[in-house]
UniProtKB/TrEMBL annotation:
It comes from Virgisporangium aliadipatigenens. Residues 7-138 form the HTH marR-type domain. Gene3D superfamilies: Winged helix-like DNA-binding domain superfamily/Winged helix DNA-binding domain. It comes from the Bacteria. GO terms for molecular function: DNA-binding transcription factor activity. This is MarR family transcriptional regulator. PANTHER family: TRANSCRIPTIONAL REGULATOR, MARR FAMILY, TRANSCRIPTIONAL REGULATORY PROTEIN.
Amino acid sequence: MNATGDGMGVVSALVRASFLVNAVYARSAREYDLTPQQGQLLCVLMAGPYGMGDLGAVLGLAKSSLTGLVDRTERNGLVRRVPDGRDTRAVRVSLTPRGSRVAGEFYAATCRRIAELPAGLADAERDALAGLLGRVVLANDVPEVFVDPVEVRTTN
């Protein structure tokens, strides 16, 4: 048993929390007729166009998997490949106008659902949770695949 008396250790809590967030992502994706991976792709591209190599690194996908993901999302009219102005052999992936709208809606719905998860915590506990998880993420060099809602509000 841990100090809180709930019997859940850090490993179990992190694994279960990841399943919880993945379930929220999947629910939002279904609502917008996306796969969770397409939802991730759209959220990453909200920051701007990416080259395929950088996009693969951020999403943690091999080249063939990324190509398939971009192909499917492009067929749905949500992203497009555009020539890279600095390298004529390369392309960058960007949101289409429709993709930008869907990304914004998907992002807002997902943020709302994730923000509700710790609803039973006091403000100080929520702040502590965010601080601790933030330290874990930074210590493990996790790429930013989901922009913090505060950043979106202040940059738009």
